[in-house]
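Weekly structure sync, notes
Attendees: PL (lead), two postdocs, one rotation student
Agenda item 3: pending single-chain targets
PL asked that the sequence for the first pending target be pasted directly into the notes so everyone works from the same version. It is reproduced below exactly as submitted, 152 residues in total.
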Amino acid sequence: MLDNKERKRVRDIYSKKKSAEKRSAEKNNRKDEDFLREFPDAESFVNWWEQQYDKQGGKCHYCDTSIDLIARLIKAGQIGTRKVRKDGERGRCLELERKDPFGPYDRKNCVLACMYCNNDKSNTYGYKDYKEFFGPNRKKHFEWLENKLGAP
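Predicted structure, written out during the meeting:
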């Protein structure tokens, strides 16, 4: 279950994505964008996110690491975050990720990923290769860092 702060953050993601899709549609003269067709309003997107979060157990789809552990590692200074815009920051929350980066933003192609896997996979690696080879190794690294910290 998402708390109110996380629901607001997911609604903000929807708003930004919706604006980007509308600009893209205007620029390319496309009437319907996949994201807007799949998620016609913020509540449908928040509901999908919550279901996906629960389905994934609050873990990154690729490395299977809980976002809570990642947040602890960040807080302990074991891993860094990425600054965005003026005072924004990536890393402490799961992010929207397309398994096929050239495919649509739809329920079949989207998962939740940690910023580290999302950034690393990008459009450089295919879904299956990243999930099989890179995700498990990132998990091992996060677990190694966790062991250095000791019990929470």
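Discussion points:
- The chain has a mean pLDDT of 88.
- The first strand starts at residue 82 and ends at 84.
Action: rotation student to compare against the earlier draft before next sync.
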